[in-house]
Each structure stands twice: as C-alpha cells, then as structure tokens.
Amino acid sequence: MDKDRLTMLAKNPNLIEGIHNYCDRWCERCAFTGKCLNYSSHQEEFPDEGSRDINNSAYWTRLAGFFHEMVQMVREDAAERGINVDDIDEEILAEDKEITARAENHPCCEDSREYARTVNAWFDSADDLFSDKKDELTSAALMDLPGGDPVAAAQELNDAVDVIRWYQYQIYIKLIRAVRGMIRDSADIEYMPDDSNGSAKVALIGMDRSIGAWGVLYDAFDEWRDEILDVLVSLERLRKKAERHFPEARSFVRAGLDETGRSGE
Ligand code: SF4
Questions:
Q1: Which residues are CB-neighbours of 74 under 8 A, at least 6 positions away?
Q2: Which of 106, 125, 134, 210 is most buried (CB neighbours < 10 A)?
Q3: What is the pLDDT of residue 265?
Q4: Is the CB–ligand 1 distance for residue 25 below 6 Å?
Q5: pTM for the whole thing?
C-alpha cells in the first residue's frame, strides 16, 4: 500500500484515532473494525481468506512488502521533520537494550513468561482429556438426553481454550511494554505518556478473561481440578502483582474501547 492510499483510508471520518494502540488485536472478535485504521489497512492489503493464508508463500511475500512500505513511510515522515533515522545514536540503542533486559527481569514479566510455559505444559498433558470430553459430549448429543446441552457445552469449552491461547503470550508481551514504559518514566526518558498504564491494562484484561476461561475448564474437568486450580492461583497472583505495580492501569481510558457512548456500530 502506498502513502496516498493510506492517507485516503485515514481520512475516513468514522475512525477512532489510536484505537489499536491498546486493544488485544483479536480483530475477529472486535466490535470496532469499522473504526480502526489498522484493521482497514490490513483488509486492504489482505482482502480475502486466501490472501491471509499463512501457509501460502504469497502471504509472507506480501507481508514483507507491506512492512517495507511502512518503513519507507516512516523514513520519509522522519526526513520531513529533519530526522535521519540512520543517525540514531548508538548510545540510545544501547540504552534501549538495557531497558529491555531490565524489563525481562521484572517480577511481572518473569511470572507472565512462566505462565505462558505452564499453559503449554498443561495443554500438552491434556490431549487425552479433550478427546475423552469430545467423545462424552458427542455421545450425549446422540442420545439427546433431557436436561443437558452438549453442543453449548462444547462451544463453551472451545471458546475457553481460544481465550486462554489468545492471551497466553500477549500478557507477557504487554507487561514487557508496560515495564519498559515504567522504567523510562522513572528515568525521565521521553516516551509515549502513560503508555505503561495502557499496556498494563491490556495485560490485565487478558488475565481477567483467561481466569474466566480457566474457570470453565475447572468446571468441565472434575478429575483435573487440582492442576487447573494451581494455574488459576498463579494467574491470580500475577494479576494482583500487576495491579500493585501499575495501580493506575485499571483506570486508564483506551481510545474508543473504554469511552462511554462509543460503540462499534
Ligand atoms: S481495535 Fe479492533 S479491529 Fe482494530 S486492531 Fe484492535 S482488535 Fe483489531
């Protein structure tokens, strides 16, 4: 996509500026697709299912081209403001690296990294559990017994798994960004104001939803309750820790997403 086309898309009066900065990037479930420049530019570049097929090399070629054009636009934009991005100081790069290293060792980031590993380990060990549950729900659906809704139960389980998987790594990624912002703020390094609270809020929302989803698994798998409870307890501890380190995150107002009177309609 060239700059003119992007500029044209950006002129859409329905857009909410910056809405994609603090969303969870789950566009398939987002009510604001018609108000998001990130979504419309992505749709423009990848208009149909086929063009979004990650198993197709054409997708990766196109994505690489898309990023290349974006980088060019950033370069041009910077040049118009008198900045040569190739002149960025080695010192700034070293400082940035050091901030990332410190962020990775922050207790919130360490725990969220561990949570992502725990999720993988749990799902690796739960393969049989899901196939047994599938058999159980299929039999119940075939018998059509009164008092149960196996189709709804299966959907609820699928949804819970999708939610856990969606946020599994995102919680860590958002917390890294939040901690990086906090370090910059405390060192008075110029950065996006309040970015750490916005990022921490997205991480907290991911934790809230994941805790709800683990609750669904807890109810569905009686014999695995102890293991699921362990995951729930560790996630709840992480949530409390994040709230302690980012006490203003919950009240951060995300453009469009948290503003009253706005909807995706
Ligand atoms: S705001 Fe919604 S549509 Fe835009 S990037 Fe985020 S999830 Fe996707």
A1: 85
A2: 210
A3: 53
A4: yes
A5: 0.86
Residue 23 forms part of a structural domain: yes
Q: Where are the alpha helices (DSSP H) in 52-194?
A: 57-80, 90-104, 107-125, 127-143, 150-168, 170-186
Indicate whether 259 pLDDT > 80: no
Q: Do 28 and 13 share a structural domain?
A: yes
Pocket test for ligand 1, best of 21, 36, 41, 174 (most atoms within 8 A of CB): 36
CB 27 within 8 A of CB 33: yes
* Tens of pLDDT, residues 84-110: 777 777 778 888 899 999 999 999 999
User: Does the residue 262 lie in any domain?
Assistant: no
Nearest alpha carbon, ligand 1 atom 3: 33
Q: Is 30 in the pocket of ligand 1 (CB under 6 A)?
A: yes
Atom 1 of ligand 1: nearest residue by CA position: 20
237 Cβ below 6 A of ligand 1: no
Whether residue 113 is found in the same domain as residue 241: yes
Q: Is the pLDDT of residue 51 over 80?
A: no
- For residue 67, CA distances in Å to 44, 73, 74 come to 14, 10, 10
- Range(s) of the domain holding residue 214: 90-245
Give yes or no for residue 23 CB within 6 A of ligand 1: yes
Sign of CA dihedral 171, 176, 177, 178: positive
Sequence-distant (≥ 6) Cβ neighbours of residue 248 within 8 angstroms: 197
Share of the chain above pLDDT 90, in %: 53
CA Rg value for the chain: 22
